[in-house]
Amino acid sequence: MRNPWDADHYDKKLRYVSEMGKGVVSLLDPKPGEAILDLGCGTGDLTHEMATSGAIVVGIDLSQAMIQQARNKYPHLQFAVGNGENFRIDTTFDAVFSNAALHWMKHPSRVIACVWNALSPGGRFVAEFGGKGNVETVIGALERALDELGLTSQEKHPWYFPSIGEYTTRLEKQGFQTTYAIHFDRPTVLPDGDQGLEHWLNGFAGSYLQGLDQPTRHCVMRRTKELSRPRLYKNGQWHVDYKRLRIAAVKP
Ligand code: BEZ
Known about the structure:
40% of the residues lie in helices and 23% in strands. β8 and β9 (237-240) form a beta hairpin. It is α/β, with parallel strands linked by helices. It has one domain (7-250): Vaccinia Virus protein VP39 (Rossmann fold, 3-Layer(aba) Sandwich). The radius of gyration is 18 Å and the shape is globular. It contains eleven helices and ten strands. The structure holds benzoic acid (BEZ). The site of benzoic acid has 8 residues, from loops.
């Protein structure tokens, strides 16, 4: 069984996650000398990207493996293991940034409260993550493939994909002023041709595949691909039906 966060697999096969997050860095517009927290920093590529603007960036991630890889790649930057739903840092930040991480945190109000506590007054929170309907073709296919084998797929869904209305309501309940919110389709082309969806499932869908022996796992993968193919496979590449929620908010 693959480690839930295999940092090498992430860097080799899933590096488009950070590549596609560069637009979120542009929305944040980091300035020299600003203190920024990168929440769910993975292996640190966007932490590094923000630091090149002269900001002082700290990356945190729940995965020890990801943090170790981030430290190896960017030894001059500061990284720490930390839980986005339950972190407290002895300093405050001008901004909290997060790309493709908040959908892994199923207690959003706890995350939002931690972000609030981490920000100085006037600080901004800029994030992008999966929104309502994200990757629903793949999830539907995966759940059907499991159901067909009599394997329950219920309660294995590991993600939180809210609508704009739901998420901005939570932000405002905490006291944030939402300054920007958009929910948009971002079909995502996976590298590695036909193998791309397997890499995606191996990297991200561990909670569905955990505990399956190798032949069963193989069978579920094959059936998931077969069911997804008519909608998502075009010209030799998988185009996964990502839907993003991108927000900016300010702590008054
Ligand atoms: C996402 O970035 O939207 C995502 C990545 C992996 C699994 C589910 C969603």
